[in-house]
Amino acid sequence: MSVVCGNSWGWLLDSCTHIDEGLQRCVCQSAGLEKPTYFKYCFKREYFNTLKPHGQIQQNTDILTSYTAKHSNGEHAKTDLQTRKKRKRKQRDLNTGELDAHIYHGKIRSVVLEGSRALLEAARQCGYLTEALITPPSESLTTHECQLAALCDMAKRLPLTDESEVAPVQTLNGDGLDPPLDIFSYVTENPFDCACEVTLMREKYLLPPRSRFLLSDITRMHPLINSGDKFDLIVLDPPWENKSVKRSNRYSSLPSSQLKQLPVPALAAPECLVVTWVTNRAKHLRFVKEELYPYWAVEVVAEWLWVKVTRTGEFVFPLDSQHKKPYEVLVLGKYRSCTDHAVRSSAVDELPEQRLLISVPSVLHSHKPSLSAVLKPYISRKPKCLELFARSLQCDWTSWGNEVIKFQHSSYFTRERAEDPAKTSETALTQ
């Protein structure tokens, strides 16, 4: 389970443990070997090794810069001082978006502060966030150079498959476990109860048990729609437009208006729970609540907050920072189709209007914590779950996006040999 502890404020999550759960036994078919080899994979801990608040690091940098300017000779110190004075003179009144964000922060500030304090104290009583911090932060984390989005663009030039002749879902081959799959035109499924290491486009990826995915952009979602599945939970992490993304060019963003093209009503079962990750820009939050959800016939029922902390339990950014906040918003809604008259299941708990999710964030961009465990009481038993704009896979989930298997690349994991389940069974029988 990814839930370390929980109370009336929310839950504290361990994202790394959740990732590892589905990869305790992974089958790898090696060339030239008749029998497969089994490994245990673990997500590298250095990707969750945030030791100090980012604001504190910046503050230390500012102090060092000030000291250098004070003790250096020549025009450099004067220029630096003049630049800082100009920046102070450029301080201005808040614009409409900043003012809305400031008002929103004022409403939820006490909840974040008090709820985080209570959850972190409960976590420490469980022995979490109390271990000695002996792992030094890595100077340069190695990350796989992902070309999946570019490959999706190239795949759009290929002709569409004849939907009348071809099933929209393809499964892994249990004999070879490494078939030449067309992952752009079909939903690919690992039907087995163990994870599988497969070679896709000459790269090694790990597919969790009973996971499914479609690698495509928003114009090629028809295999997912044609699969016929109706989902009880749909989670979205849209690539929101903002200035930092444009400057860094880390990934392609999507205008808010284009999100309406997502076929959520076609994929949602009656009373489907729809959850959207939203950045702290007020216009994005307003768009989801006032335009996007009404367009999909989704009724807003709750707003939760993901609070990001370091391994010592401090906010990753100062709570009242004017630039970045240590939390993100999740908007939760229920799909209310006018043609559906579903009766709410008595086994489903009432969704609370406000909760906190606290975790140490991944240093990998847009690597969100799983919501499986915390949402389980609020959806039907044995639900069908879908993540849109996903960059990783989960057991018993379907995932879609143009980088959907990005964080399943084997380079993000360590591995060690695991017991062959057949040998384990033989040992148990002889005892």
From TrEMBL:
<feature type="region of interest" description="Disordered">
    <location>
        <begin position="72"/>
        <end position="92"/>
    </location>
</feature>
<dbReference type="GO" id="GO:0005634">
    <property type="term" value="C:nucleus"/>
</dbReference>
<dbReference type="GO" id="GO:0008173">
    <property type="term" value="F:RNA methyltransferase activity"/>
</dbReference>
<dbReference type="GO" id="GO:0005829">
    <property type="term" value="C:cytosol"/>
</dbReference>
<comment type="similarity">
    <text>Belongs to the MT-A70-like family.</text>
</comment>
<dbReference type="InterPro" id="IPR002052">
    <property type="entry name" value="DNA_methylase_N6_adenine_CS"/>
</dbReference>
<dbReference type="GO" id="GO:0032259">
    <property type="term" value="P:methylation"/>
</dbReference>
<feature type="compositionally biased region" description="Basic and acidic residues">
    <location>
        <begin position="72"/>
        <end position="83"/>
    </location>
</feature>
<dbReference type="Pfam" id="PF05063">
    <property type="entry name" value="MT-A70"/>
</dbReference>
<dbReference type="InterPro" id="IPR007757">
    <property type="entry name" value="MT-A70-like"/>
</dbReference>
<protein>
    <recommendedName>
        <fullName>Methyltransferase-like protein 4</fullName>
    </recommendedName>
</protein>
<dbReference type="GO" id="GO:0009007">
    <property type="term" value="F:site-specific DNA-methyltransferase (adenine-specific) activity"/>
</dbReference>
<dbReference type="GO" id="GO:0003676">
    <property type="term" value="F:nucleic acid binding"/>
</dbReference>
